[in-house]
Amino acid sequence: MPRIFNFSAGPCTLPLEALEAAKAQFSDYQGLGMGLVEMSHRTKPVEAMHQAALDSTKALLGVPDTHQILLLGGGATLQFAMAPMNLLAGGRQADYTNTGAWAKKAIEDAKKFGNITVSFDDKANNYSRLPDPKAVQVADNAAYYHLTSNETIGGIQWQDFPTLKCPIVADMSSDIMSKPLPFEKFGLIYAGAQKNMGPAGMTVVIIRKDILEACPDTLAGYFNYKAHAKENSMLNTPPVFQIWMLKLVNEWLAGKGGLKFAADMAHKRSDALYNAIAASGGFYKSPVDAAVRSKMNVVFRLPTEELEDQFVKEAKAQQFDGLKGHRSVGGIRASIYNAMPLEGAQGLAQFMAEFARKNG
Ligand SMILES: Cc1ncc(COP(=O)(O)O)c(C=O)c1O
């Protein structure tokens, strides 16, 4: 069976080279007679792989020495709670932006641990716009400003980040590794792996070291970033397979040219699809403000839900899979992460043009 074009939002398509590299050594890692996932995490081969995954993430993203990378379990969802637990101890205040489904979940959990102000909420426009980064103001006492850099369901993405007097805390689950980041603006970045970095079950956390040092010791071990940092992300049995895949995906991306390649390709893939929407004479409609459309998740509607169902079905028959929009919003969503070949996006754009011509 040849590989199909998988437009799923995550878990999603991963680089074939990384999958093949894992397959080649899955049951016999480096000729040791057993697989990496069968070894104790306290053995040299696992420790070396673990460090290489951390080092390659640092190198690829260009993480400065002011920040530390942690590899944690629990998904990005755990970070909705861990961030305020660690950063808002003692009743501190934080500003949150409600830009859609994922931001909303982050806010709901943060409210259980801190004093949360929602300074932007675009409900009135059905979450189609973002704040102007140049105009963002934060309260004097804000410990941080939380944003969701890319709303995976709504297809809306911050193109620039504000410069603020407090650090930004960002959920970057669905666009990390897609472009270089201004780390000096960020106190904490968290991202579930299952879009641009590997399989689900691991979260990359990048935290500024002074913030790390201030994490309260009253927290239970697993909830405390400082405890994980002290053990180099081996506080407990780490998700070895996910970390290994992260390393292999990193090696693939580094070989392609790193974040410059990722950003260039993201631009080309998303342009192909947004151009197809624009060229359709209104058959396809994007619900998102043109200035903040996502380069990772392209969402659009067709004239009727029946046509949307037909679109998904016919696209699947032509090997373009996973295009149904999130169940909460409907419509179509094409997720075009780092591992999506450009031909996938270009092929889908062509399919869109033909579908519009036949059904418009
Ligand atoms: C932007 C964003 N944040 C958070 C999550 C939740 O991640 P997890 O399922 O790893 O907890 C997702 C999941 O897709 C997401 O897209």
Can you walk me through this structure?
The protein has about 350 residues and is α/β, with parallel strands linked by helices. The protein has 2 domains: about 15-255, Aspartate Aminotransferase, domain 2; about 255-360, Aspartate Aminotransferase, domain 1 (Alpha-Beta Complex). It is built from 10 helices and 13 strands. α4 (about 100-110) links the parallel β3 (about 95-100) and β4. The longest helix has 21 residues, at about 260-280. Bound molecules: pyridoxal-5'-phosphate. Pyridoxal-5'-phosphate binds near residues 77, 102, 148, 171 and 192.
TL;DR?
The longest helix is centred in the last third of the chain and has 21 residues, at 258-278. This protein is an alpha/beta fold. The chain has helices spanning 16-25, 44-61, 75-87, 101-110, 209-213, 225-230, 240-256, 258-278, 305-317, 342-359, and strands spanning 5-6, 67-72, 93-98, 115-121, 142-148, 150-151, 156-157, 168-171, 186-192, 203-208, 297-300, 320-321, 332-335.
Give the CATH superfamily of the largest domain.
Answer: Type I PLP-dependent aspartate aminotransferase-like (Major domain)
CATH topology of the largest domain: Aspartate Aminotransferase, domain 2
Task: Tell me about the largest β-sheet.
Answer: 7 strands, mixed
Give the helix level as a range of percent.
25-40%
Given the helix and strand composition, which structural class is it? alpha/beta
The DSSP helix count reads 10
**CA-atom Rg in angstroms:** 21 Å
Strand content: 15-25%
- What's the overall average pLDDT, rounded? 97
Order of helices and strands: EHHEHEHEEEEEEEHHHHEHEEH
Kindly state the number of beta strands: 13
How far apart are the termini?
Answer: 33 Å
Ligands (ions, cofactors included): pyridoxal-5'-phosphate
Q: What is the correct CATH architecture of the largest domain?
A: 3-Layer(aba) Sandwich
Given as residue ranges, the uncertain stretches (5+ residues, pLDDT < 50) are none
